[in-house]
Amino acid sequence: MVNFKFTEEQEAFRQEIINFIKVELSGKTNTATVRSSFVPKLVEKGWLGLTIPEEYGGLGRDAVYLTIFNEEMAYHQAPISLSLYGRSNSVFGKICLQHGSQEQRQKWLPRLAQGEAFGQCFTEPEAGTDMTRIQTRAVLQGDHYIVNGQKMFITTTHILRYTLLMARTNINAPAESGLSMFIMDNKSTGITFTPLMGMGGYRTNQLFLDNVEVPSENLIGEENRGYEYYLENKPFYLNKEKGAEVGALRRSFEQLVKYAKETTRDGHLLANNPIVRQRLAEMATNIRTMRHLTYRMAFMEAQGLDLFYIASIARVFIVETWLKFNSTALQLLGLNGQLQRGAHYAPLGGSINWHYEYDALQYFTRGSPSYTKSYIAMHDLGLPEN
Amino acid sequence: MHFCFTEEQEKFRQEIVDFCKAELQEGSRTPDLPVSFRRKIAEKGWIGLSIPKEYGGQGLGAIYRVIFMEEMAYWRAPIVAYDYGVTMSLLGNMCLRHGSEAQKSEYLPKIAKGEIFCGQGYSEPQAGNDLSLIQTTAIRQDDHYIINGQKMWVHDAQTYRYTLLMAKTDITVPPERGISLFIIDNSSPGITVIPQIAMSGQTTPQVFLDNVLVPARNLLGEENMGWEYYLENKPFYWNKEQGAETGMMRRIFDDIVRYSKETKRNGVLLSQSAVIRQRLASMATDIRALRLLIYRMAWMETKGFDLSDIASLTRVFHVEAWIRFVNKTMQLMGLGGQLSRRQVPAPLGGTMEALYRQAALQLMQRAGPSYIKSTIATHHLGLPPAW
To answer: pLDDT digits over B136-184, tens only?
Structure first.
């Protein structure tokens, strides 16, 4: 039977989060002290290890709970980087849990639950959407792998200690069969990195790996199966925000509706303008649909169902809704929309133009609509390879 | 029907192309280049192409102006074509049509030499699309007007010498009456310019006018006729880029086509991807169509035809094509597209990153597609006003 309702426990959980945020954040400005004390409180609650099994220091809840958590944190604009923890959980956490040795799980998963985030170091100058083109080599010597190569667009090297690395361990096998995954310490000798400054002030890094030693105990799962793990993990990686984007958009949308109700332009309330009304209604439709897709996916994950198809479809819909929201919202705000945070006339705290610049990134990533569509065409619709 | 450039026009274009090739050779782009380049084009008379000879110009038609702007943008000449476009389509045009003889002889020769620039001081916090709601007042006292009020989005107040300012000279009449235009020197006492930080790292100033004294001879045309002048001039102002937009797009497009012929992604040339080929072809279609519209408009201007209809359609097409263009270009460049200038691996020298961000502004302005579409509906299609 189809049931579209949250359980009582899930509703109670959401309410608990909302109450928690009220106590911790209401009336407080977003200062460095508030930010730095907030994450430890989440750790205390166990919420950063929501989906990690209890034996590894987590709460052992399912993906629906994680989605509720992310949605409410984003909606209430809590001072926590959900994308950092989201990526950490959906990539490092998942792969470690699925394929890590018992020792690795015992060593790393509790750290995740304690609020440590883990980066991802896959992309190279010649390997973007197609990971099989990775050229970085990892050669076993005694109890270490020696890693050499170059990585691009690595988001977290300058802020996080550990990264999930993908490198080639067998150059004789077909391209997709010689890759392996490692846990790499960003502080290892031989790693140099320089910043790449992107849109909206977003920083990524270019990494050079020069005879970097990675202990062989840090190989995840089996050698030469890294690409398999990557493919298996893709649905999770594609939707790593897991509800955060829904929460953020719901919040921005509410502010936009309020703005339309309160703002007079050329003598008329924006809310009375038929074009504005159409656009707002369209946004509401898309955000609601996006929320359904997100929870449907979480539900399927909790049931252990195959996520491949829904993950791609959801991703396309989410990104397209998201980018369209930014552009439509900017138009609705009129010229004031260009003003940044801090400017007297900046509507919605200047947040929309920042999003417009920053979110353009979604066009290019491995989860971009065009790439995901080509993936849907090939894998889900069974169209022949190009 | 005749869709060809004349021989003289073709020759003129070639002259500009040759000039740009000679002046902008590799290694010539030194910090001193912009100054000497501007001097040379002023000497050639190219800045005042469409200004009559008696006011220091060349007395050539609008098509020459558009050819000049298009080629300057295509060759990435070290001038801000926008500065010339905005000055010519605002102060230049208005002065020619409604200025006193004294104003014409004072301002037009300087515009023709590229010595002065003039921006627009129309918008206010409560008067955006509908300028009839402006509240800034200009009260006549002897041989001066005293101006008080607040203006928004006066982009050029920090860098240009002059602003064409819109103010109420009669507050007792209905909103669109009682409006006048003034040529204001931005360094006048009582003017305070406060920059606001805007998207893509730009600033856009608010301007406060506190008992600013403006000589009565700086009133443009007749008192209380400002609204009529504004409406009449709208077609020119909307398309102030005057060909620079097609020149820039043509250049980026040439670069993009080359990039996709040379760049392999996942082992295959971008130019061999069926999706990318479709996108490039639709970009080419947009550029060609836009270019035709722009030259058609210039041709109509030389014939003295009413431009309000074609100017609206062209502006809508221009902005929408430009937004499609930057979006497609960004997607085509992949992750490298996010990198700004000076980042070594940035494709196309990192130009698209900033252009993508700046493009959003076009959606919000008075000349934005949604506003213009509503004027097309009312004024050109004769639909009743929206409720």
So the answer is: 999 999 999 999 999 999 888 888 999 999 999 999 998 889 999 999 9
DSSP B300-358: HHHTT---HHHHHHHHHHHHHHHHHHHHHHHHHHGGGGGPPTT-TT-GGGGHHHHHHHH
Give me the count of residues in chain B.
Answer: 387
C-alpha R_g of chain B? 22
C-alpha R_g of chain A: 22
Token pair 């359609």 in the structure block, residue:
B313
Cβ proximity of A107 and A122 under 8 Å:
no
Closest CB to B199 among A198, A344, A353: A353
> Domain span at residue B88?
7-117
Three-state secondary-structure class, residue A159: coil
Q: How far is A197 from chain B (nearest CA, A)?
A: 6
List domains and CATH numbers for chain A: 8-113 (1.10.540.10), 118-224 (2.40.110.10), 234-380 (1.20.140.10)
Burial of A342 (C-beta count, 10 Å sphere; 0-12/13-18/19+): exposed
- Contact in structure between B59 and B202 (CB atoms under 8 Å): no
Q: Are residues B266 and B372 in the same domain?
A: yes
State the ipTM, two decimals. Answer: 0.71
Which of B117, B135, B155 is a domain's end point? B117
Q: Are residues B61 and B23 in the same domain?
A: yes
Q: Which two tokens stand for residue A260?
A: 């339309």
- Which B residues 171-200 touch A at CB under 8 Å? 196-200
pTM of the model: 0.82
